[in-house]
Structures are given as structure tokens and as C-alpha cells.
Design goal:
single chain; alpha/beta; two-stranded parallel ribbon; 7 helices; 20% helix; elongated; disordered C terminus
Length: 456
């Protein structure tokens, strides 16, 4: 930054209140601020220092006088480290160091010199671990965001134990596959928890104080035994594997007012089994838009009728006889106008309310039976033809082998050499026996001692 720019900044600053100093989006480096600007500005009276979107790679409190500082915004810089070392205690209450290049938080950063800190934003950095001492001095912290850091499963189970005043915690998209059951144990005042964007398959043990819970874009399949009596808002948006939801699994959420399932493309079934009493008595808003729903079971009528805001847009609705109840039941008229049919083709893009209930037909068993029978008969005919072809082919090959055998050399057995002529024994019943006997008789030869001759 040139000296002319520094002079301009100094002129602007001198003409306004010294309590808030906003130097965001200036392209400032730490040398510009600590060496040039500080000589022209009295920072000791500044309460809110905004240095957002500059080029700071570090921040050291020893280089300036921040005695009155309550808010420090260093977001969207190039920070790799920051320190609070040169004053015994600061009045700092808000610290924003999000969207930087922090890989590790040094013990000299979040130390006992900033005990009044209430809001801390560490999101969108490069943190890979949260150990048990990193946050131990922030005993009155109320807001903490660690979102969008590649922490994986490296959050120590005791990392939050001293944060008993914490009310808001954001752990979205930290690449975690699980959260320890001990992690949230001491957070007795926690009211808002965001676990979205992680690959967790089960819900960890949570404090009863939670009022808002975000489990969107996780691998969770079931919500049984979720006991959060103060929960008012539950987000299950963009669920990757959630194929069905039973409202009965939410029976312990007696304070739930808002339930959102938007963008859960695999969600094809909503169920409600017979239930004694009133399920979800305070539900006011239900969002099931952009899901995979094709029909609504009539058993859901008790919940749908008393839900003030119901969003069902952009589902592949199948307008058949199963949806007749939506048109005829009092209290669901507005719902029938919001449902736009995807199938059958004759109702494509029509509102359910535009279709007479008498025309909402389901495919009968007979209409489905004929195509199935036709396919079965075709398969049977093809099978028989193949079997016949194989049988004929094998028979032809066998006949050819027999004919070759019939050309083999004839063998003789039981030859009697009682006379000078060798007599061939032929079976008396064979034609050859009769021919030989006739020949001998005509020549005066007797058939004494002549046995049968076998021809193979």
C-alpha cells in the first residue's frame, strides 16, 4: 500500500467515530496496518476492528494497543497463526478468523488472556485436530463454529468439557464418521447443534437441552429412540440413504414444530402406524419437497390436516386411486392443489385437484395378469422348442454312431473242428442256419456235431 492510500485512510478515519474501524476489502498486509496506519490512528479506543478480506498472514497483539477491543474480524485473510500474548487480559468478546489457512491453534492463541470471549468462528480453515486443551480457557463461550475443516474423527472426547455455557455449536462438514458419546455430555445449555455434511450413520448421545438439530446430508437411516423433549426444529435435508420415514419414530419429540426433508431423493415412503394419543402435537411446518414420494398413505391424514405449512412440490406423484382421499377429505384441499402429477402419462403436470376422484384409477390385477401370462406362455413355447431341437439333434448323432457300428467285422465263436472241414456254428433259428443246412443236405453232408454259430 502506498503512502497516498494510507493518508486517505487516515483522513477518513479521523472524520468518523473511533469506536468502530472498518478496513475490510483494502488489500492490506500486516506491515501496512501495524507500521503505517497505526502511526496515524489511535487504536486504544477502537472497540470493533474489522480487517476482513485483506492479506494478513499473521496477527500479533504486541504490535498494537487494543485495550478497548471487543470485536476482531480477521476473516478471509491468509492467516496461519494469531497470538494474544502482551496484555494480561483483553475485553475481546467476538473473534472471527474464518476462511483462513489455520492448520493448528497454538496454546498462545486461545489462552487465558481472552476469558470474556463469547463468539468464536474457526470455520473454513485447515484444522485437522481439536485436542483437549485448545478450548479449555473459553468457559463462557456461547457460539463456536468449526465447520468446513478436515478434522475427520480427531475431536478429542474432552474437547468441549469446559464449555458449559455453549449454546450454538457448528460441526458441519468436518469429515467425521462418528462422534464420541462423551463429546456433548457437559454441554447442558446447548440449544443449536449442526452435524450436517458428515458420514455418520448413528445419532450420538445428545443433551436434552437441544432445540434445533441439523442432520442433513448424513448416512443416518433410522431415528428410533431419539429423545429430545425440547427440540423444535429438525432438519433431514438431502439425506443420501433415507428411503422411508415412520412418524412413530419421532414420538418423543413432543415440542417439534418444524420438520424438513427437502432434497432427500431416496425418500419414497412416509408411514404412520396406529398410535394412542396425539403424535407430534406441535408440528406446524412439514417440508417434503424434492423427494422421491409417489403417493401419500391415507393414514397420514391426522398429521397433514393439522400442519399449517406443508411443502410437497417436485415429487414424482402417481395420481391413482390411492390418492383419492386427498381430494375428498376436508382439510386437504390446498394439498391437492399443490400435488402435480408425474404419472400416469394422461395426467402429466396436472394438479391432483383438477382430476375427478372417479377417474383416479388403479391398475387391476387382471390388467396386470394378461401381460404376465403372455410372457410366461412365450417363455414356455421357446423352452419346448429348444428341448425338441436338442432331442432331435442328439438322436441323429446317435443313429449315425449305430450305423458305423454295423459296419464292424463279424466275429465268430464256438467253432467245432471234429471234421476236416471247419464248421461254423450258427444259431438254429437264424436264416443263415437254414441256408447252411440246406446246402449240406443237397451235398449229402450230415450235420452231426455241428453246434450253433453266433454272429455279432
Amino acid at each position: 500500500m502506498g503512502p497516498v492510500s494510507v493518508a486517505v485512510f487516515a483522513l477518513i478515519i479521523s472524520s468518523i467515530s473511533a469506536i468502530t474501524l472498518d478496513l475490510s476489502h483494502r488489500g492490506l498486509k500486516k506491515e501496512d496496518f501495524f507500521v503505517k496506519l497505526q502511526s496515524q490512528i489511535s487504536l486504544q479506543d477502537v472497540t470493533d476492528l474489522i480487517l476482513r478480506e485483506n492479506e494478513f498472514d499473521s496477527f500479533l497483539d504486541c504490535s498494537t494497543n487494543l485495550a478497548s477491543l471487543r470485536t476482531l474480524d480477521l476473516s478471509q485473510n491468509h492467516l496461519q497463526r494469531f497470538f494474544f500474548l502482551c496484555k494480561d487480559e483483553y475485553n475481546l468478546q467476538v473473534l472471527n478468523v474464518s476462511h483462513n489457512k489455520l492448520e493448528y491453534i497454538d496454546d498462545n492463541a486461545l489462552n487465558d488472556r481472552i476469558p470474556k470471549l463469547k463468539i468464536l468462528d474457526l470455520s473454513s480453515n485447515r484444522l485437522s485436530i481439536v485436542n483437549e486443551t485448545m478450548l479449555e480457557h473459553l468457559k463462557i463461550l456461547e457460539y463456536l463454529s468449526l465447520a468446513n475443516n478436515p478434522i475427520n474423527d480427531e475431536i478429542h472426547e474432552n474437547a468441549f468439557w469446559n464449555l458449559i455455557g455453549l449454546r450454538y455449536l457448528n460441526l458441519s462438514n468436518v469429515s467425521a464418521s462418528t462422534f464420541s458419546s462423551e463429546l456433548f455430555k457437559t454441554l447442558i445449555n446447548l440449544s443449536t447443534l449442526d452435524l450436517s455434511g458428515n458420514s455418520i450413520k448413528t445419532i450420538p448421545l445428545l443433551p436434552d437441552s437441544i432445540e434445533e438439530l441439523d442432520l442433513s446430508n448424513t448416512q443416518i437411516l433410522h431415528l428410533q429412540d431419539l429423545f429430545l423433549p425440547k427440540l423444535r426444529q429438525l432438519k433431514l435435508n438431502d439425506m443420501q440413504n433415507l428411503r422411508e420415514l415412520s412418524f412413530n419414530d419421532l414420538e418423543n419429540l413432543t415440542s417439534l414444530e418444524t420438520l424438513t426433508l427437502a432434497g432427500s431423493k431416496q425418500l419414497a415412503h412416509l408411514k404412520l402406524y396406529p398410535y394412542r394419543g396425539r403424535l407430534l402435537p406441535r408440528l406446524q411446518r412439514l417440508s417434503i419437497n424434492d423427494c422421491g414420494l409417489k403417493t401419500l398413505d391415507c393414514g397420514l391424514v391426522s398429521i397433514i390436516k393439522r400442519t399449517v405449512i406443508l411443502n410437497v412440490e417436485n415429487n414424482p406423484w402417481n395420481c391413482d386411486c390411492k390418492m383419492q382421499w386427498v381430494n375428498v377429505v376436508n382439510g386437504t384441499k390446498s394439498l391437492s392443489r399443490d400435488i402435480k402429477c408425474r404419472t400416469p402419462d394422461r395426467y402429466l403436470n396436472k394438479q391432483l385437484s383438477e382430476i375427478p376422484s372417479s377417474e383416479l384409477e388403479c391398475e387391476t390385477v387382471s390388467s396386470l395378469l394378461y401381460p404376465v401370462l403372455g410372457a410366461s406362455v412365450l417363455i414356455l413355447v421357446v423352452t419346448i422348442m429348444l428341448a425338441v431341437s436338442i432331442f432331435v439333434l442328439r438322436r441323429s448323432i446317435g443313429h449315425w454312431d449305430i450305423r458305423r457300428k454295423n459296419r464292424d467285422t463279424v466275429t465268430y465263436t464256438n467253432v467245432d473242428e471234429s471234421s476236416n472241414d471247419m464248421s461254423l456254428l450258427v444259431h438254429p433259428s437264424s436264416p443263415k442256419h437254414r441256408d447252411i443246412s440246406s446246402a449240406r443236405a443237397s451235398s449229402g453232408v450230415r450235420d452231426n456235431n455241428v453246434g450253433p454259430l453266433w454272429i455279432e
